[in-house]
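Appendix B, record 7
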Amino acid sequence: MKCVMIIDESLPLGLIANTAAVLGISLGAQIEGIVGPDVQDSEGKVHRGITRLSIPLLKGSSELIRDTREKLVALDAPDLYYVDFCDAAQKSKQYEDYRSKIERVPVDELRYLGIAMCGPEKHVRTLTGSIGLLR
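Structure tokens (predicted):
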């Protein structure tokens, strides 16, 4: 299994961090076993489980993210989970605001800030193998 995130590199640092956090939480909630069990340190103190997989952050643009999302939808692979994050979500204060915006804003007017995917390595590599790391 392989997971990656593509984030719009033109975003300010705070929005890049927010986008990665939202996508990471969404992956953690949906991919069974991605978070390992709690561990104890040498003093017996608990450290909560973290992701078992490395999740590289790749650089992209809103257009690249939109194109990748369209390819994911067309691929229709049930073993490939993906989640996108767009400006409608980022600007919403509550989830119902986001839902309302998504339902009424034309799809071609959404500005994608990031997308995360997790699934078979061959699918993920095919979609993202030529995209550089976000630095």
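Remarks on this record: The chain has one domain: 2-128. The chain has a mean pLDDT of 95.
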